Amino acid sequence: MSQNTTPEADMKNNVSQSNPGGGAPTGSSGGPTRYPPYGGPNWTRLRNIALIIFTVTIVMNLLAAGRLANAAVPIQYSQFMKLVEEGHVDRAELNEERIYLTLKPHTDITMVRDLLDTTIPPAVAAALSSGTVYTAVIMDDPQLTTRLYEKDVTFSKIYNETRSSPILNFVLSWVLPMLLMYSFYAFVIRRLTRKMSSGGGMGGMFSVGKSKAKEYNVQTSTGVKFSDVAGQDEAKESLLEMVDFLKNPGKYQSIGARQPKGALLVGPPGTGKTLLAKAVAGEAGVPFYSITGSEFVEMFVGVGASRVRDMFEQAKKNTPCIIFIDEIDAIGKSRDNRFSANDEREQTLNQLLAEMDGFEGKQGIIVLAATNRPEVLDKALLRPGRFDRRIIVEKPDLPGREAILAVHAARVKLGPDVDLRQIALATSGATGADLANMVNEAALLAVKEGHDQVQQKDLMESVEVVIAGREKKDRVMNPKEREMVAYHEVGHALVSAQQRDGQPVQKITIVPRTMGSLGYTMNMPEEERYLMTQSELLAQITSLLGGRAAEQIKFGEVTTGASNDIQRATALARGMVTQYGMSDAFGPMGLETPENQYLDGRPVFGGSDASSAAVDKEVRDILMRAEEEAIKLLKENVDALDRIAQHLLDKENITGEEFMELLNAA
Ligand code: ADP
Ligand code: MG
Ligand code: ZN
After folding, report:
1. Pocket test for ligand 1, best of 275, 290, 466 (most atoms within 8 A of CB)
2. Any idea what the Cα angle at residue 519 is, between residues 513 and 523, rounded to 5°?
């Protein structure tokens, strides 16, 4: 989502400024600062040493190869012999194919030019000098060595490779290896520094030293207030106490109350944990130090621990303040699991525990941590004096969602027809982050459509975008598929409408969405429900199976499109039997306990193997009865099924009102 409209986004921008020297701490009063790791290797020095080695090697190789780089001037063997005969040749080097010669230092170049006139290009002739190397193709000349010897030429035999083609030779033996070495070096250094840096601005090897390893963030003032956090009243109430500790420490000290050191914010992602932590700092007007647990996971051993130490050290100098450890489960996972031992994580965790024991509550530091997986945390973290308080940050309920929508909608221009309550009703289960995202999507949509205000239509569309993925206009379903999807969706809607306890239909669509659904039926309760009766549950199961029942009735077979419906219906039926005591076979016996509430909500079965089989049978009975009921309802209304499905095929979208009109038309 784009956070352009949130105050938080502005602060993030501040925080991302780096301390360009990467050097010594510049104090925390001047806004965001970053600190280099304590015990880590000194990357700048390493880089410099490598650079020097690299340069020296290159220069030496260039010097050594320089001689070879001068292309020798080709001449004929006879010309070569003539030069020898006349005593101009100083040195000669021979290999299997060629002979290379250098003339005596004071040879008359004009004479040489005259001699070579016919065989070499004028441009080359003009460039001849006393240092020029000449080369001739060797001939089968047994007298050669004698003649050279007689004329006092220094001669030697050389290996093929070193003379065969000076340029190619140079490239192969020096340039190529150097390039390879360089690439390898750059690759390795980049890999190493990427692990340490926050990822930005790695512009080649020369910026390596400037890499800004992300340490921890400091905000002198977060600017977030409790009023920016909508809903979450219980969480805010617990945190208000913390704000008071920070603001009026004397009040508590005089009574002798031990101040809490830390609290754990627990809740699903996107519910506003980070926002709440910032709001505590903002309300108390104290600095906000934060690190994120997951950043440590792939780090070098020792770095995480030193950062934790560093952060607490700084924080203690700037009390009162808030320290926030986001995603603490990444470092605070239980150490019991020997199979996934991670030294770095353990060191970081130990350091954190040591730091938390190392200061007094009255020092005015409050450590907040956030997690969505409290059950995996090491027990040591939850002991008194550490994160002994838990603040539950739940997904928002209906009034909460409306309030969150209002907070975010206040930042965009709303049209007169906007009804946030209706949006809140349609978004049961959405988190604060989802809702913020929806408002932003709606604003984007409004711009795209050329409106100057966000309209209800935009908001409704963005709900679908966020819930079901973006509309996929380019996906083409073949006509047969389209028809099946239409009947399937109308099946859901009809079954739902025909039952006394069914929920009213809000929208039916067969426009495919990116997240895999081919169409869907949206039912909207008139109000948020916390309780469901047995008959409502049954009605819902029946409606879920209505899609499949319609396929069965119309086409005589079923498709794979109902798999999600089946899963959901089965889960509901199973819940009725094992958790809600709604079966004859087990009565009010609890067979399953929800565990892992914040992870995946998968329940744990607590009964015997025999009851497990009996539960399966009971669940199956419920589902079979519901399917029968759905088929019966649809058979009684097969005219309406055809009529509405045809209309849906024409229009692709049907609103709840249109649906009711069509249903009552006959
Ligand atoms: P978490 O840390 O729980 O994953 P965040 O605090 O990062 O969630 O929330 C992400 C964004 O969602 C926030 O920046 C804010 O825009 C929005 N948001 C979440 N909860 C709320 C809320 N209760 N009120 C207003 N905005 C919220
Ligand atoms: Mg967060
Ligand atoms: Zn379905």
Report:
1. 275
2. 115
